[in-house]
Amino acid sequence: MRLSHLEKTCQEKGLRMTTQRRVIARVLSVSEDHPNIEEVYKRIQQVDPKISLATIYRTLRLFQEEHILKRHEFGDGIARYENASVEHHHHLIDKGTGQIIEFYDDRIETLQQEIAKSLGYELVGHRLELYGVPLTKDKKKKS
Amino acid sequence: MRLSHLEKTCQEKGLRMTTQRRVIARVLSVSEDHPNIEEVYKRIQQVDPKISLATIYRTLRLFQEEHILKRHEFGDGIARYENASVEHHHHLIDKGTGQIIEFYDDRIETLQQEIAKSLGYELVGHRLELYGVPLTKDKKKKS
DNA sequence: CTAGCTGCAAAGAGTTTGCAACTGT
DNA sequence: ACAGTTGCAAACTCTTTGCAGCTAG
Questions:
Q1: CA-CA distance, A91 to A128, in Å (whole number)?
Q2: Is B6 helix (H, G, I), strand (E, B) or coil?
Q3: C-alpha to C-alpha distance for A36 and A43, rounded to whole angstroms
Q4: For residue A66, what is the DSSP state?
Q5: A1, A115, B77, B131 - which has most CB atoms within 10 Å?
Q6: Distance (Å) from CA B121 to C1' D14?
């Protein structure tokens, strides 16, 4: 059987591949959104209902420490995960629907580096989230 | 006795001013950092050890809802508060010491507006945090 | 006077952990 | 074989809440 992208990454890192980890890796490999633990648990249960929540917590933490997954916390304080292999980007969260839109802008990146440097720091990480509401036609016209 | 800045704000908003709220408002008025609840509790206890943690939670939430305080969560997921009357700014967190440096940059603000608009959204909020390590002399020279 | 606030202790949400049984390598 | 992993339930941390008594306006 074909290995999922995340399973392959796990192997490269020399992680012991248990049934549970395989399932978790596969489920997250095909996830293109930003599920929280509860959501991950639900998806896992569709595949193997015997996997416990504790294992999911442990595995997601492990994957995060191994930089296989990225952990986010958007506003609500609930941990959400996404595949770390996707290229660097930020998130715009729709305040109404909660929908998450990914974006990347080079100018922001450069500016952040610059700001950090001017404060006497080397930038080692950053977090940027925009919260917005859809532009109405009216507002679009005005602008 | 002179009212603290935050006490005044509370009165303007028509909040009932209990002893506890006064103490909490005063302690936060003189705080120029970003204390978490535990830290706020400690400071409160120096002034009036009988004020309960529950009251502090309730009051900080109230103050936040009234836009008297701003709540932040930097990386660690612990709520931190700061006086909302300070002007808009972002934070650079020193990864080594945890020290928090405030900064403001107009170009970032403009860029964010622009990005949101280009995605079809009106920007209603944002969060930006930089994480850095102090530049060493070496690195300073190189740059 | 009384609506709203407080302190206490108990409950809740989300997450971690101790331990005995189990399993990948 | 055996170090590392799992499932379970209990523990933990941070935060909220029910309730009886208290207090600002």
A1: 7
A2: helix
A3: 11
A4: T
A5: A115
A6: 34
What nucleotides of chain C have any atom within 7 angstroms of a protein Cβ? 4-10, 14-18, 23-25
Distance from CA of B105 to the nearest CA of A (A): 8
Give the model's confidence band at A32: pLDDT under 50 very low, under 70 low, under 90 confident, else very high: confident
Determine contact, residues B69/B58, Cβ cutoff 8 Å: no
- Please, which pLDDT band fits residue B22 given cuts at 50, 70 and 90? very high
User: Are the CB atoms for B113 and B128 separated by under 8 Å?
Assistant: no
Q: Strand pairing of A79-83 and A69-73?
A: antiparallel
The single-letter DSSP state of residue B77 is -
Per-residue pLDDT band at B139 (split at 50, 70, 90):
low
Q: Is the pLDDT of residue A141 over 70?
A: no
Residues of A in contact with B123 (CB under 8 A): 130-132
Contacts of residue B68, defined as CB under 8 A and 6 or more positions apart, other chains included, come to: B6, B9, B10, B13, B25, B83, B84
Could you give the CA distance from residue B26 to residue A4 in angstroms, rounded to a whole number? Answer: 56
Average pLDDT, chain B: 89
Q: Which two tokens stand for residue A93?
A: 């969260």
Q: How far is CA A66 from the centre of its chain?
A: 14
Q: How far apart are CA B22 and CA A53, in angstroms?
A: 44
* CA distances (Å), origin A55, targets A7, A29, B110: 16, 17, 44
> Which pLDDT score is estimated for B108?
94
